[in-house]
């Protein structure tokens, strides 16, 4: 008997894709509402510019120093992280909130056009 009660209290860990998507959208919405769209975009694009500039420098000196390819790799990862923390988050949140979903193969272009004009 104690084993059955213990099994019921443990979380199942089988999260569906819809539940995961809902949790991600909720988290994105909270972050965007807390920080704001403009600071996230400014931070994301500024960080991407800095890391792309560093990547250019590191790629120019890649043949002269043995450990320079590692810094290039770190810059690439930093560019991806910068994009994910700013522009990608805003775009995904805005797309989920402003563009209506089409069910199946039916496209409602007139409805979308009237919503945005």
Automatic annotation (TrEMBL):
Region (Disordered): 1-22
Membrane topology, as annotated: Multi-pass membrane protein
Subcellular location: Membrane
Keywords noted in UniProt: Membrane, Sugar transport, Transmembrane, Transmembrane helix, Transport
Domain of life: Eukaryota
GO biological process: D-glucose import; dehydroascorbic acid transport
A matching Pfam family: Sugar_tr
GO cellular component assignments: plasma membrane
Segments crossing the lipid bilayer: 40-61, 67-91
Single GO MF annotation: D-glucose transmembrane transporter activity
PANTHER family xref list: SOLUTE CARRIER FAMILY 2 (PTHR23503), SOLUTE CARRIER FAMILY 2, FACILITATED GLUCOSE TRANSPORTER MEMBER 9 (PTHR23503:SF35)
Name of the protein this chain belongs to: Solute carrier family 2, facilitated glucose transporter member 9 isoform X6
Lineage: Eukaryota, Metazoa, Chordata, Craniata, Vertebrata
